[in-house]
Amino acid sequence: MNLSRLLATGSLIIASLSTWAQRSDTTYNQIYRPQYHFSPRINWTNDPNGLVYYDGEYHLFYQYNPFGIRWGHMTWGHAVSPDMFHWKELAPAIPEDANGMAFSGSCVIDTKNTSGFSKNGKTPMVAIYTNHREDNQSQYLAYSLDRGRTWTKYSGNPVIDLKEANFRDPNVFWHEPSKRWVMVAMLAKQNRALFFTSKNLKQWEKTGEFASPDSPAGIWECPALLEVPVEGSKRSKWLFLLSMGEKGGVAGGTGMQYFVGDFDGKRFTSEFKQGDVRYLDYGKDYYAAIPFNNTTRRVSLGWLNNWQYANEIPTTPFRGAMTLPRELRLIKTKNGYEIRQQVVNELRPLTSDSFQWRGMDTRELNRSLDSNHIKGETYVLTLEAETGGKAAAGDMGVKVRKGTDEETVIGYDPIRQEVYVDRTHSGKTRFSKEFTGRFAAPLKKAAGEGSTPARLKLQIYVDRSSVEVFVSDGQVTLTNLIFPKPDSRGLEFFGNGFRAVTIRNVESVW
């Protein structure tokens, strides 16, 4: 790259950061602005990057375009939080430069100073990310000695260069048994995960590969490998997450799948049989979820969007948001090991009781909602119901964000034994032919039982532009964007079998 282009790129970055600072007072109250999900003040965001906990702060780095509301000029945005909900957005951390864009990656706390980046006894925070050019993707390092506020790119970059155009998304963690750093990165268009180890984060040795020929993904992106205890036992298993790019998501477009197995410090081996594809989420809008490093908790955060229409969703002056943070667990069923997901407990202090009901008559339930003027746009709705007897005669569920001609339907179909979200009439949908639809999760298979459970519990997290549904202790989840009118705030239950309903308001984190 010639000097004039290099200087021009640097000037653009400086101008962008100046613009970012000048516009930092942008409100968080637009009609589709999430009120308890993270979104940047302005501009585009996609994958979460470098999730790490350090010195009382959760760090969220994320793919960010400092120049506009569509994908491009990938830079690492940065926000910090004490509880994963009240985020303070900081200046962008790792910018695009003359060598390329800063694509996805991870962050570690190098407490032993294996990298040698420490100065004056300060612990290095080290980012491992993909440097992207049109003809090459290679792995770079950057480090911070002031809790992520300022960053220095390593002069010896790249630390891994396979001369590949689609080699990206390094997931790095410390593996205590082998006393080494482990990296998992994707050969995206070959649907292969590569494993590397290092003693110092600078020199890496390839140790293994993982592939699954029956994966329906168009490409593999954003891997994550973590050890998770198995509930009710003294053992643990390794959970391997991957994002399904271009196609292959269970609801169409992009999505995520997972494997459970063993990791020996060099390579991962799945226990799943051939043809057994497990989806992490059955909604349309869950992608690139990775866990927080440097904590014993298994908490992940994902991108709330789908590449089929991500550049077109009707939000401004921002475009893109993160999902709710989720605790990950593993249980063993007769179908083998299965994942369970729950929203972290830190949400609880943001909620307050608004409505409680117990009974059997759906008409009485709806009359009680009307008489108490129960409606809203940001709340957690918990319903418990029976699935047999009269309840088995037809669908049952709830319509949220209901207006004159709008509603998002969350229901249970006893014939198909599935939970679904139908956003066909959820609000603005015409920006993409791929947006509307009914998206379902097979409850019987997910529960690992021979028949559907006799009781059903749904936790439904409603925000201004999303619904996240957690079914029966997180056996399955469905995450979907919605774009209703601001005055579409009604609730209506349908079908039979309800036994208890609780609605808790969620206060804005902004």
* Total beta strand runs: 33
Number of domains: 2
Oligomerization state = single chain
Give the averaged pLDDT, no decimals. 93
CATH topology of the largest domain: Tachylectin-2, Chain A
**How would you name the CATH homologous superfamily of the largest domain?**
Glycosyl hydrolase domain, family 43
Structure at a glance:
By secondary structure, the protein is mainly β. It is 7% helix and 45% strand.
Q: Your description of this structure?
A:
The chain is mostly beta strands and about 500 residues long. The protein is globular, with a radius of gyration of 23 Å. The strands form 7 sheets. The protein has a 6-stranded antiparallel beta sheet with strand order 23-33-24-29-30-31. It has a 5-stranded mixed beta sheet with strand order 4-3-2-1-20, with helices on one face. A hairpin with a 4-residue loop joins strand 15 (about 255-265) and strand 16. Helices cover about 5% and strands about 45% of the residues. Residues about 1-10 and about 20 have low confidence and may be disordered. It has helices spanning about 5-20, 360-370, 445, and strands at about 45-55, 55-65, 75-80, 90-95, 100-110, 125-135, 135-145, 150-155, 165-175, 180-185, 190-200, 205-210, 220-230, 235-245, 255-265, 270, 280, 285-290, 300-305, 320, 325-335, 335-345, 350-360, 380-385, 395-400, 410-415, 420, 440, 455-465, 465-470, 475-480, 490-495, 500-505. It contains 3 helices and 33 strands. The chain has 2 domains: about 30-345, Tachylectin-2, Chain A; about 345-505, Exo-inulinase, domain 1 (Jelly Rolls).
